[in-house]
Amino acid sequence: MSTATAHSGGQQVSKSEERRVIFASSLGTVFEWYDFYLYATLAPFFAALFFPKGNDTAALLSAFVTYAAGFLVRPFGALLFGRIGDMVGRKYTFLITIVVMGTSTFAVGLLPTFEKIGWFAPILLVTLRLLQGLALGGEYGGAATYVAEHAADKKRGYATSWIQTTATLGFFLSLLIIGACRVGMEAKDFSEWGWRIPFLVSLFLLIFSVYIRLKLNESPIFRRMIAEGRGSKSPLKDSFLRYPNNKYVLLALLGATAGQGVVWYTGQFYALFFLIITLKLDYLTAYELIAASLLIGTPFFIFFGWLSDRIGRLKIILAGCLIAALTYFPLFQGLTHYVNPALENYQKTTPISVAASDCHMHIFITPSTKFTDCDRTKDFLTKSGLSFISQPEIPGEKVVTKIGSMEVKGWDEAKIKEALKATNYPPKADTSQVNYPITLLILVIMVIYVTMVYGPIAAFLVEMFPTQIRYTSMSLPYHIGNGWFGGMLPLLATALVAVSGDIYYGLWYPIGVAVMTLIIGTLFLKETKDVKIH
């Protein structure tokens, strides 16, 4: 029998049991994140499958809206499953969440495309994304609470940091399987049916995850609470309508999870989209670079979780927000310089301007959305990875585009392409010109920011709230911070770039949120590492 390390609710938890809990909870959560990130990784690709053709940026924004829908619904999943978790139990609840998640993901692999069934395709896709989001809204809080309630007080940051690795490992797994499919088949085959394989594979992952979780026991702290009759009869009311807990929920959101969410999604997803969409790097090379950065950076989740047991959770989280806000612009400019130097040189030598007045910022695209000539022109330039200057309209002209010394009146895609070609625009990144070591270093730096803000967050949130409402109280701010502030990042950043004409302008969104979190967290939150939840 291993030496006992924690007294959870008066019951000893052995080292071997603690390790088994961490492994089983983390493994199941890896598979659940894998399910969720398949769509995130394929979002640019899905734009052509499930949305009407005609405006690439509009289709891409629609794909990002569908992606964001899964995030927007996550807080509702937190409320639904958090309440069940606080009243019925942690183990039972995250068994339900993983079944819903896995089944929904498998069903995406069976969906007909827009070409087959028209607008029913995106409607069905959004429905399944909503189910995924609801399930994930209940998953994280359950896994984090379950592990924390088995861990020793002095090792809670370290123990829960293993849960924090699961999102990155799930992302890595999705990149690995998608990359294998794309390498193993022709591009046409992947476009027609091969994209379904990663989603269908999730069925096997679901079966294995359920098998693992069925072997777990309920949290000893929760069992003791129920035995003593100290559970909450109304977790939602106790969490959000009673002071001071409702104050802590709001502060946890604005002073911790919002900044953590945007730093996370900038370092993993927005970096990936920037490589592929803006810098025109091929999918496979981009996947390999992101996967390598995740592989190198993932151990830092454990390191910062361990470090938070010694110096505190909050200061590490806020330091990550501060450093990210200060360095995002030079880091992304560095990506342009080292990934596509030809594009960078073209922008320096070829000024581009768009003179028009009837321009709009499109975020949520619907079948009734109308695009003006200005919108179409800016859309084309944006999807080409080009910055441009917006100028006042020229009397008598709807839109006038200047590319170097060449001028194109009105929306005319063919003439704009001719002007770009004549001025030596590079349509794709030349992989022989990519500086791989420096590019990888930049991506690893951004992943380390992710590990700083994300590694200690589970322990920090668990320690903020009492056992009887812990699942509910910690889940809502976590999923609003990650699901709304973080999940909206690709959509809002893409729209900001399109309307501003600056390929880096979208970074102002994560920088602004990170600075807000830094200020509120510094002023109003306190360290939690010495809280004894047992």
Structure, briefly:
The chain is mostly helical and 534 residues long. The protein folds into two domains: 14-340 and 431-524, MFS general substrate transporter like domains (Growth Hormone, Chain: A); 349-422, Glutaredoxin (3-Layer(aba) Sandwich), CATH 3.40.30.
How does this model look, in words?
By secondary structure, the protein is mainly alpha-helical. The strands form two sheets. It has a four-stranded mixed beta sheet, covered by helices on one side. Helix 3 crosses helix 6 and helix 12 runs antiparallel to helix 19. It is built from 23 helices and six strands. The N terminus is likely disordered. The protein has two domains: 421 residues, Growth Hormone, Chain: A (Up-down Bundle), CATH 1.20.1250.20; 74 residues, Glutaredoxin, CATH 3.40.30. The radius of gyration is 24 Å and the shape is globular.
List descriptors.
Glutaredoxin, about 525 residues, single chain, 2 domains, 23 helices, about 5% strand, about 70% helix, four-stranded mixed beta sheet
Fold blueprint:
Elements: E1 4-8, E2 11-14, H1 15-50, H2 56-72, H3 74-87, H4 90-108, H5 114-117, H6 120-148, H7 156-184, H8 187-192, H9 197-214, H10 220-227, H11 235-240, H12 245-278, H13 283-297, H14 299-311, H15 314-339, H16 341-349, E3 352-356, H17 373-383, E4 389-391, E5 399-403, E6 406-409, H18 413-422, H19 436-454, H20 457-464, H21 470-486, H22 489-500, H23 508-524
